[in-house]
Specification:
By secondary structure, the protein is mostly helical. The protein has one domain. It is built from 4 helices and no strands. Keywords: Transcription, Transcription regulation.
Length: about 70
C-alpha cells in the first residue's frame, strides 16, 4: 500500500469497514510511514473535535465546505 491508497481508505479504516487483509496492509503502512500516521491522527482529531460541536453551532456554509472537502478525499 502506498500513501495515496491509505488516504483513499482512511474513512473505511475509521469506520471499521475494511476486510482483514486490507486493514493489515493499512496498519503496516502506518507503522512504516510517519507522514501517514500523522495524517491519520489529524483526521481522527478533526472527527473528534467536530463531533463535540452541537449541530446548531456549526455554520451551515462551513458544514457544506467540510463535507465537500471530505468527499474530495474519498
Amino acid at each position: 500500500m502506498d500513501c495515496q491508497d491509505l488516504v483513499e481508505l482512511v474513512t473505511a479504516y475509521l469506520e471499521d469497514d475494511m476486510d482483514p487483509d486490507a486493514r493489515a496492509r493499512f496498519e503496516t503502512h502506518l507503522g512504516a510511514c510517519s507522514g501517514c500516521a500523522t495524517y491519520l491522527e489529524q483526521i481522527e482529531q478533526t472527527v473528534h473535535t467536530l463531533g463535540t460541536l452541537p449541530p446548531e453551532e456549526l455554520d451551515p456554509a462551513l458544514r457544506d465546505r467540510l463535507l465537500d472537502a471530505f468527499r474530495e478525499w474519498r
